[in-house]
Each structure stands twice: as structure tokens, then as C-alpha cells.
Amino acid sequence: MSGDDTLTGLLADAVACSRRHVEQGGLPFVGVVVSPDGLVSPPGVNQVRETGDPTAHAETVAMRAVAARHGPSTLIGATLLATGEPCSLCYRFAADHGIGRVIYAVDQDTAATWGFDYRTRDEQPTPAQRALVGGAEHRAVADRLGPFATYLQLRGLPLPDTGYSAL
Ligand SMILES: [Zn+2]
User: Fold this and answer.
1) Is 0.85 topped by the overall pTM?
2) Nearest 5°: phi and psi at 69?
3) What are the residue boundaries of the CMP/dCMP-type deaminase domain, all occurrences included (predicted)?
4) How far apart are CA 19 and CA 29, in angstroms?
5) What span, in angstroms and rounded, lies between the C-alpha atoms of 139 and 106?
6) Which of the chain's ends, N or C, has fewer CB atoms near its CB within 10 Å?
7) How close is the Cα of 1 to the center of ligand 1, in Å?
8) How far away, in angstroms, is 116 Cα from ligand 1 center?
9) 36 alpha carbon – ligand 1 mean position (Å)
10) Residue environment code for 131-159, b if the CB has 16+ CB neighbours within 10 A, otherwise e
11) Separation of CA 57 and ligand 1 centre (Å)
């Protein structure tokens, strides 16, 4: 398996983890850091509610955990995998700490359609996105919308009319 296939597999794993997290009452966002030498972080999940820290988004939680455990330099050149495209805060944190590229399963516009609209009015790509050496990339891994659908269904909310059916 090439390194790129490995990243796609890890992104699919993150989506599966996200669905399990939603089934336990969480939000459909998981962030995973993969360092250049292959270190894979534990999945980060949103901890804003539990900690009262408004910056404890899934992706930033994952990046902080790697920096705390292995040193901030571990983030340099690493890839950030995200089940939902990072918000501007997380893009900025990633760019400022040397993350090389971001790969996400669901883009911001699609997340907004599914009830999570955290888009900014910044022009695209944003300065933080441009600061990523490897850029930001969408990968449509299987079942990427499953965590969002599960989130809405558990709350009795209607699914958006997008033809989604793969549950
Ligand atoms: Zn964020």
C-alpha cells in the first residue's frame, strides 16, 4: 500500500471512529495527525462542552495531544486528517504549527448542508490554507456522511434532501 493509500485508509478509519463517537453522544468530527515518519495520533474529538474550552475542536485536540506527547516538532510536515473540513481556527493552528497538508472527507459546504455551518466569509483559499505546503484536499471516502446522518437521526432531525441513503 502506498503512503497515499494508507492516508485514505486512515481517513476512512477516522470516519468510522466518528460514527462511533456520534453514537455515544458526540459530534461528527474526528481529527488524526500522521507524522512524516508514520506516527498516527489517537483520534481527537471535540471537547468544547466537556472542558469549556472553545478552542477544543477535534483537529486541534489531536494536534495538541501530539505536540504534548512527542514535542511540537512532530507536527512539522505532518498530515492532518479530518472527517469534516477544519474550521478557520483549526486551519490556522495547523498552518502555524507546521502541518504540511490537510485531507478531509466532508467539505465545509457539505457539513453546512448537514447542519454544521462553520464557514467564514474569508475568501477561498484562506491565508491559512495557502500556508499549508501541501495544501488542503478533499477525499470522498466511503460512508463519509454516515456520522452526520447518525447525528441527525439520533436527535430525530430530518436528513437534508441530498439523496443520501447509505446507512
Ligand atoms: Zn476547528
Assistant:
1) yes
2) -85, -35
3) 2-131
4) 9
5) 8
6) N
7) 30
8) 12
9) 22
10) bbeeebeeeebeebbbbbbbbbeeeeeeb
11) 5
Active site residue 50: no
pLDDT tens profile 35-93: 999 999 999 999 999 999 999 999 999 999 999 999 999 999 999 999 999 999 999 99
Q: What is the CA radius of gyration of the chain?
A: 15
3-state secondary structure 122-159: CCCCCHHHHHCCCEEEECCCCCCCHHHHHHHHHCCCCC
Give the Å distance between the CA of 136 and the centre of ligand 1. 14
pLDDT at 162 over 90: no
Q: How confident is the model at residue 138 (pLDDT cuts 50, 70, 90)?
A: very high
The active-site residue, picked from 23, 50, 59, 85, is: 59
Min mean pLDDT across 72-76, 93-97, 131-135 is at 131-135
